[in-house]
Design goal:
Quinone Oxidoreductase, Chain A, domain 1, 13 helices, Rossmann fold, alpha/beta, globular, about 375 residues, single chain, 6-stranded parallel beta sheet, 7-stranded mixed beta sheet
């Protein structure tokens, strides 16, 4: 089947992307689903820093590749062995397919699925195949999804069925921004009510974490970013304190404002410096959670003594430590009840042809979550 898609052929293109056009909008062929796979008609796909990090070369992936990993769509065809999804079902994609039988999956940690990680790194679907072609040559899949296309064949293990009345542009956000940000708060940190919290980095994931902290009734929510515009958004979403990360003495000011530091700090900027700041602004016995993805060469320095003598906790969080089949419907229900207003993260709707300019806005920090409507 022919479909339009955004194909990344080379990395490290010059900015602005609107001129260099690293993503080529072209016609590709998508194969019908094989065993355990599903063909979906993609209706909305979000622009995320994880996509941008492939475009700028910070995250090496096999090329050429159809980018995109955060999306919602409709089932058009199911392959052999798929008996729990039907044509017409609305679905959200998860960017880590979980095999269900490796060590982490059996331990209830599908975000760490070993075959899923291997296939994502190789640019294949969970079963090891590629279902995208151009001019007779195979194209690689991005995180098992390749959402910047009108259609995609994906593993059944990458999909979660959702309420069909949920607008596609809202549903798409639950596949990455919400599940990563809210999950880091709910699952990784296991935040209790009336905690004091800081969020460092206010992109889509960071602001979702802020909403998650508010949903758990945090008593103090400190928002930190280099953009005053994003700090204003954070304040409108419930932040009790906002700090520009470029201001001098920010660490001391935050500790003073929070009575010695926060119970939990969440690093969402994808920066080693941001992670070090997040660690320093937690109190004795505090927890620091990092969900940001920095360059693979980035290193972090923290005082070993404080880790031990103050019983600090430093944790990584991938996919929000979530079980997508459990957490995506749960967070959608929180949205429906008004507890999690994730629609306020949506900062723009774009056509597929505008995708390169959309990544300029993301790289410049001028957007929170833009969604391609297909």
């Amino acid at each position: 089947m022919k479909t339009r898609a955004a194909v990344l052929n080379v990395v490290g293109a010059a900015r602005p992307y609107a001129l260099s056009r690293p993503l080529e909008i072209t016609e590709v062929t998508v194969d019908p689903p094989g065993a355990g796979e599903v063909l979906i008609r993609i209706r909305a796909a979000g622009l995320c820093h994880s996509d941008l990090s492939v475009i700028d070369g910070n995250r090496l992936r096999p090329l050429p590749m159809v980018l995109g990993h955060e999306c919602a769509g409709v089932v058009e065809q199911v392959g052999p062995g798929v008996d729990d999804l039907r044509v017409g079902d609305h679905v959200v994609a998860s960017f880590v397919p979980s095999c269900g039988h490796c060590g982490p999956c059996e331990q209830g940690r599908p975000a760490l699925c070993e075959p899923g990680a291997a296939s994502n790194g190789a640019g294949t679907l969970l079963g090891g195949g590629r279902r995208l072609h151009r001019d007779g040559l195979e194209l690689n899949h991005h995180l098992g999804v390749s959402a910047f296309a009108e259609r995609a064949t994906v593993s059944r293990r990458s999909l979660v069925r959702v309420d069909p009345t949920l607008p596609f542009e809202i549903a798409a956000l639950f596949g990455c921004a919400v599940i990563t940000g809210v999950g880091a708060v709910v699952n990784t940190a296991a935040l209790g009510e009336q905690a004091s919290v800081a969020v460092v980095g206010l992109g889509g994931v960071g602001l979702a974490a802020l909403l998650g902290a508010r949903a758990l009734h945090a008593r103090t929510i400190v928002a930190i970013d280099l953009s005053d515009d994003k700090l204003a958004i954070a304040q409108s979403l419930g932040a009790t304190h906002v700090f520009n990360a470029g201001e001098p003495g920010i660490e001391d000011r935050i500790r003073e404002a929070t009575g010695g530091g926060v119970d939990a700090a969440f690093e969402m900027a994808g920066s080693a410096r941001a992670l070090e700041l997040s660690y320093r602004i937690t109190r004795r016995g505090g927890t620091t959670v990092s969900a940001g993805l920095s360059h693979p060469s980035a290193q972090v320095s923290i005082p070993h003594l404080s880790l031990v003598a103050e019983e600090r906790t430093l944790k990584g969080s991938y996919l929000g430590s979530c079980t997508p089949e459990r957490d995506i419907p749960r967070y959608i229900e929180w949205y429906r009840s008004g507890r999690l207003p994730v629609d306020r993260l949506l900062s723009g709707r774009l056509a597929l042809e505008d995708i390169n300019a959309g990544f300029d806005a993301l790289a410049d920090g001028r957007s929170v979550r833009q969604v391609i409507l297909l």
